[in-house]
Specification:
Helices cover about 55% and strands about 0% of the residues. It has about 110 residues and is mainly alpha-helical.
Length: about 110
């Protein structure tokens, strides 16, 4: 995640009234994004479900069946829409995201 990506996500979460919390160190989620971020910017923000469970555990799976998780899913959908709108309408932010992603890709080629 580049600084511009983090800023874009933080700004959108703030506008939606969603608290942004830096995720803890380590692997937090699985993804089907693969190496997409080596070709173009990829956003994968995390959304709290209100519990500190690690993913792919019985506790996490059990929590997915509870009503409180529905608000996290709605927040995630709203964040995706807000982020897309922000990047589509804010040329300066989009250029910063592209520029930093390119620099990250070039550094990874070393």
């Amino acid at each position: 995640v580049t600084p511009a990506q983090k800023t874009a996500v933080e700004n959108c979460m703030d506008a939606l009234g969603i608290d942004y919390v830096d995720p803890p160190e380590g692997v937090l989620a699985s993804s089907d994004v693969g190496n997409v971020s080596y070709c173009c910017p990829a956003f994968q923000p995390t959304m709290s479900i209100g519990k500190p469970y690690k993913i792919h555990t019985p506790e996490f799976a059990g929590e997915m069946k509870k009503d409180n998780v529905h608000s996290a899913l709605l927040n995630s959908a709203n964040l995706m829409l807000a982020l897309a709108a922000r990047l589509y309408t804010d040329d300066e932010m989009m250029e910063a995201v592209k520029r930093e992603n390119l620099a990250m890709r070039e550094a990874a080629e070393l």
